[in-house]
Amino acid sequence: MTRRATWPAALAVLxxxxxxxxxxxxxxxxxxxxxxxxxEFGEAKADTTFSTTITVSGSGFQAVSGAMGGVYLxxxxxxxxxxxxxxxxxxxxxxYVPDSETQDNAGFQRFVAFPGSSTAKEAHTTMSADGSWTxxxxxxxxxxxxxxxxxxxxxxxxxxxxCGVITVGAHGVLNANNETFTPVTFADIYGEPPSTGxxxxxxxxxxxxxxxxxxxxxxxxxxxxxxVLAEPVVDVDRATAVVGRVMTFTAQGFTPGxxxxxxxxxxxxxxxxxxxGAQGEIAGVLQLPADLKAGTHTFALTSAASxxxxxxxxxxxxxxxxxxxxxxxxxxxxxxxxxxxxLGAAALVLVVVILVGLVTARREKRARRAAQFAxxxxxxxxxxxxSPAGVA
Length: 392
Description:
Blueprint: H1 2-23, E1 34-38, E2 45-47, E3 52-59, E4 70-78, E5 94-96, E6 109-113, E7 125-126, E8 133-139, E9 143-147, E10 153-157, E11 163-169, E12 180-187, H2 203-218, H3 225-228, E13 233-236, E14 246-252, E15 259-264, E16 269-275, E17 282-287, E18 295-303, E19 309-316, H4 330-374
Helix pairs in contact: 1-4
């Protein structure tokens, strides 16, 4: 009796276990990726005044041989829940120094390609099969401007928040194994701009003076030495030049450490001051007004000290119409649909198990009751009274 009464309950418990195992997400594997940072003195520090070149090395990253993409490196700051694989968004949960996505950018961003990737020619280095790589990048200083939570420009001060090197999957490919954040601290490392590699005996200065002298000899009498020197240049990221959006730009050729201000047209928008890096480089973002007319505009950077000026003309595109709700990626849709199919199948199994158990239990109960009425337990045999004498 006991065995017949309990096996439907056991099946029900098994069905519940199946549903629970399918509904409970499996915890992702802990990423083994590690990043180390070192300046020229072997410390994970950047200078509070000048830009600093750091060497960034990674190990234990997931190397997907032959796959498109790899890993992006940014210098910036992160909030809790910043990881893109967990829903973190750029400009909201993590913010970084803007730079162009090209090999000859200002060094604030880097791209490490997967081994054998079709995008390796665009990368600054290639990841080895064991997930290790090394690349150099530039920290512009303790503060920088970037795209903020509201979509406009925001100034990040790394003396007030923790900044460091961020690694994420490149080209929009989410990979939790390759998401890391490694802090960088700031200190007075250099008393003067870092050396650019010129000889310490002063011969480099003499060579520069000779070159200036030769240039002055070939110039007009009214040409000054400043006019012989290379002028600063600025360029904008055309893809971000859209009405109402944040436009990124980079510049080179300014005096290291000098302050520079920017302006769009005749006072349509402005920013600054920005501080030129150790090689005279500048990177920043400019919020384009929402009422800006699409068409050709001029952006200029001007030095507050020397008056050096760099400008560029470019096309600003009209703001696109609000896009419709973007569907989830096909892979995510397929994964979600498959999970629901499995969950539905498990639920159906559970229902069937419960119904079978109930029907079986009811049949057994009816069978027991029928047996009781059809075959009652026999009582003691009736006592036979003796017949009177002579009665046959």
